[in-house]
DNA sequence: ACTGAAAGAACTACTCG
DNA sequence: CGAGTAGTTCTTTCAGT
């Protein structure tokens, strides 16, 4: 993979986008001290280079009634060769799972799931998580707050 | 906090926004089987209700040369009353930290940090993480892949 | 080759029916 | 709630540095 080197202009634009990617081009240009045309061209290049993959809406789950978020660390059964793929494919389909990452180390997968309340969590945990294939062990931690979330970055 | 109940129309719109919040209104309307005006009004209400908090650009760190992502679980020193606040305030300022969440349980904080390579990670870990106040224990796991990331959701 | 300006097309917000 | 209009914003092209 080719590694993209950013200059100061790129960095300024990316920082502005992080705080709000919906900002109109003229405003973005003003804040970055550039002309709109220049910002457009930079954005095109960043997209083309695969730096900017797109954007995503930020939804407040608590407002929608999802009061419980739990982080699960899953260790898989290493005696089954295809355990990893089969687990991932199945877990990906669980609607309550909003995030999933794999690791190098003792723990294989971490996933975050949300539920309306504790009974709802119990139901999901028993019916949809524990039934996933090839689980050797699970450790759960209840999330209290998402404190930092991709805002300031090492640009 | 008032909990917002969504109907099918809201859900359809939110699902479309999750895949790409930059979609033009007319296209969104067509995909949702609605008129643009109706979509606008729903969006306004979702924003007003605090369901839609905004949007965020998705940046591919690997392309920018950040090849290493590590997930750290931090346990704090419970003998210091203000350990939690002081640790969080300090950790928030570390640029390499791209994500941070707090827990209810044995582990207090989990944070993700990115680095260019393993030497870079070592440097950050020693100079910027281990120097954070009130750490009792840290456990690190190297992230291999971010598999699911807020895309399909329990709507 | 890269930048800035301008015109045309597209989109959004607003008002009215 | 839908339709139409006015105001913005985006895109593309062109000329200049």
TrEMBL record, chains A, B:
Domain HTH asnC-type: 6-67
GO biological process: response to amino acid
GO terms for cellular component: cytosol
SUPFAM superfamilies per the UniProt record, alphabetical: Dimeric alpha+beta barrel, Winged helix' DNA-binding domain
Protein name according to UniProt: Transcriptional regulator, AsnC family
PROSITE patterns to which the protein is assigned, alphabetical: HTH_ASNC_2 (PS50956)
Keyword Ubl conjugation: no
Keywords, in A-Z order: DNA-binding, Transcription, Transcription regulation
Single GO MF descriptor: sequence-specific DNA binding
